[in-house]
Amino acid sequence: QVHLQESGPGLVKPSETLSLxxxxxxxxxxxxxxxxxxxxxxxxxxxxxxIYSSGSTIYNPSLKSRVTISIDTSKNHFSLKLTSVTxxxxxxxxxxxxxxxxxxxxxxxxTLVIGSS
Amino acid sequence: xxxxxxxxxxxxxxxxxxxxxxxRASHSVASNLAWYQQRPGQAPSLLxxxxxxxxxxxxxxxxGSGSGTEFTLTISSLQSEDFAVYYCQQYHNWPLxxxxxxxxxxxx
Lengths: 117, 108
What we know:
The complex is a heterodimer.
Chain A: E1 3-7, E2 11-12, E3 18-25, E4 33-39, E5 46-52, E6 57-59, E7 67-72, E8 77-82, E9 91-99, E10 103-107, E11 111-115
Parallel strand pairs in A: 2-11
Antiparallel strand pairs in A: 1-3, 3-8, 4-5, 4-9, 5-6, 7-8, 9-10, 9-11
Chain B: E1 4-7, E2 10-13, E3 19-25, E4 33-38, E5 45-49, E6 53-54, E7 62-67, E8 70-75, E9 85-90, E10 98-99, E11 103-107
Parallel strand pairs in B: 2-11
Antiparallel strand pairs in B: 1-3, 3-8, 4-5, 4-9, 5-6, 7-8, 9-10, 9-11
């Protein structure tokens, strides 16, 4: 059973960079797409972007200028960086595995990040 | 961008009743649509992919139908654990994905 776990600071000051890591266990990170999705409190889901195990990335155009997703296959984890954080970036951030023609089949439990001083 | 809408925003149902949730895409997504369930305080979980195929371990009371721009998720007989928020998501426009705003199924 594949398990994903997000980790990182729960509070980020405005204008600073949000950094999260998702550790994958119970399966290989290779040959899959890995994604970040966020959910502001009480609101719906917003796809942030994905990375393939080879390192190729695609980002949501609305966030593209501020987002970087990277991967370390030797450590079985991938990471999210979001620059110039504001209060509007306050959300639960989920990592998930994406399968072609299938959807997001495994999700982490999510981690709440608050953009505030 | 393909926009997704869902109706109703909230559906009030009694246990044992049938629930019918709708999802509409702004452009055809063929059958490239998934449904997710999100229970309070939990991450979403995949219910249906390919518009009508249940994901592994999903009970038969969940069924999906539709293609193109109109989709339906039906829960044939609601159990207590089914009271949750349900999201549709298109992956037709790979590599860009969009979710619907969700339908909350709550107790009547």
